[in-house]
Specification:
globular, two-stranded parallel sheet, alpha+beta, 5 helices, 7-stranded mixed β-sheet, 23% strand
Length: 186
């Protein structure tokens, strides 16, 4: 399915692959390209998942486009209770939303043939930078931070505060600088 639809898995389940001590994730997040929601729906129904909810409004952000998300559907396996969240990207690229996530800790995804991490050293070291510019974080961001702090992760203001990173920071250019624009093609 991931290969056929150019979809990816992300979220806590993928972070668990990188961090064996993180604990069991409560669900699986699948990100599909814009226009692929019906293929995901068909695939999940074939595997005994039932649609339990659709979110046409992304209540986590001011604007769905701000998060790279068009639609979210929630599925439940009728036999084992497993949860799958299917998130449709606002673009033809499944990973678009990954780079809008709340922090560098969760900017990771699994494609059909690779595990990709935008900040591998920081993630493995359980060190992350928030992906926001607010002086005071919104309640949803506070919830996310608390969740990952309980799991043993720490948030820092700059990559220089993470122990294992090389001290070669050039603001806006160093790949671990929060001011460096990152993309899926760098």
């Amino acid at each position: 399915f991931l290969q056929d639809t150019r979809s990816i898995a992300s979220g806590s389940a993928v972070l668990r692959i990188m961090d064996a001590f993180m604990g069991k994730p409560g669900d699986l997040d699948i990100y599909v390209p814009r226009g692929s929601m019906s293929a995901a729906d068909e695939f999940l129904h074939l595997h005994e998942y039932v649609l339990v909810s659709i979110s046409l409004e992304n209540s986590r952000t001011l604007d769905r486009g701000e998060a790279g998300i068009s639609e979210v559907r929630y599925y439940l396996n009728r036999f084992n209770g497993a949860l799958v969240n299917v998130i449709e990207s606002s673009t033809s690229s499944s990973p678009t939303a990954v780079f809008f996530f709340h922090s560098t800790i969760v900017m990771n995804y699994l494609s059909w043939n690779a595990l990709i991490s935008a900040y591998p050293i920081m993630t493995i070291d359980r060190c992350g930078i928030l992906n926001s510019c607010g002086a005071k974080e919104r309640p949803r961001m506070e919830e996310c931070m608390a969740k990952y702090r309980r799991r043993g992760y720490d948030f820092v203001a700059t990559s220089l505060e993470c122990e294992r990173l090389p001290n070669q920071h050039i603001c806006g250019e160093f790949e671990y600088c929060a001011h460096t624009v990152r993309g899926i093609d760098d």
